[in-house]
Specification:
Layout (H helix, E strand, L loop, with lengths): L1 H19 L6 E27 L2 E30 L7 E22 L5 E24 L1
Length: 144
């Protein structure tokens, strides 16, 4: 009887400890990116950015390509948030992009992207240049 009482007490202790344990929390960081894109039918672009997480800056490179209607060139200065971060390395990876947009002289652009790590980038910013796009593509982010 005493052994079963000890076993029950241990199970209750383990269950209580599991209930009070805190799962690792996803974090939100600030992102700034300058991305230049150009092309005719196939668009190619690249740029640089910085992730600010817990007060520390993590520079990264951005590269991308799109296939579809792309005519002209533009530069976009994006700023926004990176959601669901599990450390700075989780921003790395490929992000799918699909949609239509355009800029003539100057305009605004907004985009939401997600990678395989579950990181969501919510970015917006002004575009400068003359570019019209109705394409599907992706971008890849790598920490420097």
């Amino acid at each position: 009887m005493r052994k079963s009482a000890i076993a029950v007490a241990l199970m209750i202790s383990f269950a209580a400890a599991a209930g009070f344990s805190t799962p690792s929390r996803a974090e939100t960081g600030q992102v700034a990116v300058v991305f230049t894109k150009g092309g005719f039918v196939v668009g190619v672009g690249g740029g640089e950015g910085v992730l600010v997480l817990r007060g520390k800056k993590y520079p990264f490179t951005v590269s991308g390509m799109s296939v579809g209607l792309t005519i002209g060139a533009s530069t976009t200065k994006f700023v926004g948030r990176a959601l669901n971060l599990r450390g700075p390395q989780s921003i790395e990876g490929s992000y799918a992009v699909g949609g239509a947009g355009g800029a003539v002289a100057a305009g605004a652009g907004a985009v939401q992207l997600q990678n395989a790590n579950g990181v969501i980038l919510q970015l917006s910013g002004p575009r400068v240049g003359a570019e019209v796009s109705a394409a599907v593509g992706g971008v890849t982010i790598r920490l420097k």
